[in-house]
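ARCHIVE CARD
SHELF: 3
SLOT: left
DATA:
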Amino acid sequence: MQVRIGDLAALLGGELLGDAEHAVSRIGPLDGAAPDTISFLSNPRYQAQLAASRAGCVIVAPAMREAAAARGAAIVCADPYLAFARLTQWWAAQRRGIVPGGVHASAVVEPGAVVHASAVIGAFAYVGSGARVGAGVVLGTHVHVGEGATVGEHTVLKARAVLSEGCRIGARGIVHSGAVIGADGFGFAPSAGRWEKIEQLGAVAIGDDVEIGANTCIDRGALDDTVIEDGVKLDNLVQIGHNVRVGAHSAFAGCVGVAGSAKIGRHCTAGGGAIILGHLELVDHVHITAATVITRSIHKPGQYSGLFPFDDNAAWEKNAATLRQLHTLRERLRALEKKP
């Protein structure tokens, strides 16, 4: 696929510097790029790579305009990283083309399921009774859509993804391979040295424009639903416990774990390996750095970090309490030292 950079500038709404007729056939990084490559520069720290790059065209911010023009063709956009993201979406859509709707001969669609004519049901996929599959949906090979589940318009479930019975996902979602939506929550009652299962009677309700990474698990609620609001992005291997609520446009990196009944606000983020304990509440715009363990509710927006070595629980709690007072103790000590 070859595309004129003039057409790409129009698509991105940017200012073109250079020959509009020059064609590119791939998107790539600045380093190692060839004249048939369009690249981008969003971080000024990598400006040195700009002059040395052989890329046929580079997407840059206004602050980089002169440096980019001195090198060659460029598209100047207010936010190069956002422009790059939109370019990748357009590029992928062109390569995919239009997939005709239809149900593979090996797929199973149970009586009572409603599948839109434009939906694509792949080989060995299963759609349960009473399920609803919307317009433009793509269900990959071996996908399981349980009884009474709902898949919104233009949502894609990739190979081996599972949407269990009664669960719902909205429009334009992406569920990557191996993800399981609607497994039983971790609910057991202790009884005479053994565990008695608590049946999980809720479901999972997922909004629009949500992306769920490979092998991520979202447990169904015990009574009410687990809720993932619009625009949430979950990386691979994320665990969302039963009855958790994740606010709109929050994003969690790989291996984040959220225990049951936690309430996460809107526009929150969590770095890889972070843990949020159950029944806690985080307000909007809370940002948790990688591997941090959140052990209490957060009622003020901001960035939070914390690592602490494990110990006997009683000793750990005493040390943690002392650590929280360390700054106050230091100030008191300084005040005492200043006294005559």
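SLOT: right
DATA:
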Amino acid sequence: MSFVVGLTGGIGSGKSAAGRLFEDHGVVVIDTDAIAHQLTIPGGAAMPAIRAAFGDAVAAADGALDRAAMRAIVFADPSARKRLEGILHPMIRAESERRLAGADSPYAILMVPLLVESGSYRERVNRVAVVDCSEETQIARVMQRNGLARAEVERILAAQATRAQRLEAADDVIDNDGKLADLNPQIARLHATYLATAGHFG
């Protein structure tokens, strides 16, 4: 795949909704969050290394990653996040590269929640599209969607790049502060742009 767009945004920004709209246009979307989830389901390829690093307490009864337990460890100990990323990121990268190599659309979307935080991803994409909304909108969405307390959502936001940092890294900004329907024309415009650019690029 010669032309890759990195799609990112903070938690609750609406990355997944934007990704689905690109898929509706026939574009291959590779979701690194979904890959991470597959690596940490019962029998997932990352689970033996995660259990070895953090102990059996981070595994649920079915053998999947206990996300709440892992989140508590990571928030309490910043070095734990690095250890977890050291296990997951190489596996996610290898799988995403395998899927990119097999992508059969004119361009591909690589959806990476922490793209701005992870400098290496910036080298793997030709453009960065940021799904943007206010922090208050993010907090409200995540509280409603995940049932988390406001303080916990704010802690997650504090561990991510700031809105300003993401916007600074953006080649394209997708405004998702309003209704979901407002995304449709924005994605359609970007799709047309990316098709034209991918044609020249190829």
